[in-house]
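Handout, section B. The chain below has 273 residues.
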Amino acid sequence: MPIISVTDPQDERLRDYFHLTDVALRSRDEPGKGLYMAESSKVIERAIRAGHRPRSFLMTQRWLGDLEEVLAVVAERDGDVPVYIGAPGVVEAITGFNLHRGALAAMHRPAPVALADLLAGARRIAVLEDIVDHTNVGAVLRSAAALGVDGVVISPRCADPLYRRSVRVSMGAAISLPHHRLADWPGGLELLRAAGFTLVALALSDDAVTLDEFETNLPPKIAWLLGTEGTGLSPAAIAAADLVVKIPMMAGVDSLNVAAASAVAFWASRQRG
């Protein structure tokens, strides 16, 4: 693997890594270029083990040893992929943030997962409507992977699960958990119902049943509908659901953050035995 020392933050070979804190730029640019960013040695390793192809690596010297085995796998499978090494200050100047975990990889974005392929064999999926905070998306995906959810469907305006922060917060679950962006919203939810899923909206509604009641008689296939920060699910999404479920609250708290609420719902609806 070619190890290349870099000292110029404006080196054109590093354009993939420029100013990663600009969310609007990366959200627009990454899908168009077919890239996503894997941050930290653990996330990079998960991406490589999942069969994703790196375009290049950027790291400080101290992380080179930690990634030695991963780089060996890449060299054997993908041939020469440049590994750029820079001092911490240079790397920070390139990316626009302090890279605490010391390593980044510009990864070729995998082909989109077809909805039919995501639903085939799935018993529980998460459906995210317009969740715009990348940290929340990553946290939901981490809980989904940890608690046995089979895939994720996202609305047209939902944040990108493969944005750098989403991938990092998910500890790489965003890489391994299949997701599909549903173009027709909320009309496309009918495709989930046609595939046998019961659409369950997690929301505060007058006709909502409690999660305790719901888990006593779980449907064979569940699509959990989870809404955006602040306002929650749209009226149209709730209307499209087969039923509405709420998590009982105590101590005068009205609701949980969407990431926390999703974890509770995923755990309560897990398969027993």
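Note. Residues 134-146 form the longest helix (13 residues). Compare this with the example in section A.
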